[in-house]
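Our preliminary data section would be incomplete without showing what the modeling component actually yields. Below, a chain of 338 amino acids is followed by its predicted structure, encoded as tokens that our downstream tools consume directly.
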Amino acid sequence: MSQTSPRPLVLSLGDPAGIGPELICEAWAQREAEHLPPFFVIGGAEVLAQAARKRGLNVPIVRIDSPAEAYDAFAGALSVLGHADAKYAPGNPDRAGAELALASLESATGLAVLGEASAIVTGPIAKGLLATVGFEYPGQTEFLANACGESGDQAVMMLAGPNLRTVPLTVHCAIAEVSDRLSTKLIGSRCAIVASALKHDFGIENPRLAVAGLNPHAGEGGKFGDEEAKIIAPAIEALQAAGIDAIGPVPGDALFTPRYRERFDVAICMYHDQALIPLKALDFDAGVNVTLGLPIVRTSADHGTAFDIAGKGMADPGATIAAIRMASDMAARRSAHD
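Predicted structure:
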């Protein structure tokens, strides 16, 4: 397939015992109403077929031999590339399911890296289970960075919903480690990646960044901590000198109020929960995890495997649909600038 030919999106299955498979099927079932672009899934044809039946959906499954076939098939069936499969046992994860999830992720990523898919949308995984079958990364973001030949620092996680975008500068670490992991260089480099991505992947000509403080009241002039003065403020000054519209440090308890949210396009947060709590509170059913700074486009629904409700018809497909749509929009913007 030539680089100028349209390329479908590729979806990794996620853990087959979680809600990922049924939400993929729901997204395909709503493809016309939601105006979704063609996509295909790596592996798990029988898992998907059973997940659809369990949810009461009519989703024909067709096996394809190449990504290009997904275009012709998409109107009438959900395309699956590859023969790897597992039993469908919602809510009961096991090693075989983890092996399928990892194989799907690896193959999907490879197709995106090779340019045979326009973007990758990753299904939710259980990282603890994946670790038992050879997955050595804190999360899928770090895995994707390595697959692209990039350092972990180059890949930046952004959570995006209809009401808010947030970026956690430190992610999977203990709160006690956050202060030691922060640096003026880290803040500056990741904010620069975010600003560039918002401009080129999201079409925001002059992105506005609001940088949170770490401590209560942004340190209260040093009374509650000095990270703001020693680390965060110098980074903001350097960003401003480089022409990036950045403000802060903003106290965390003020940053996400309705009035303050009007002042920025993305909130740069110091740690995981500072970024994810407000995003999930405001946009849980439409939140997307998007990886910035990589040569490929990757998105994912901003929720986990939800084993407790898998197969019960309770899981909302909104975030999966939003992730598919965002991946397509980002890929289209990149293609337009190539």
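The first strand starts at residue 9 and ends at 12. DSSP finds 13 helices and twelve strands in the chain. Preliminary results of this kind motivate Aim 1 of the renewal.
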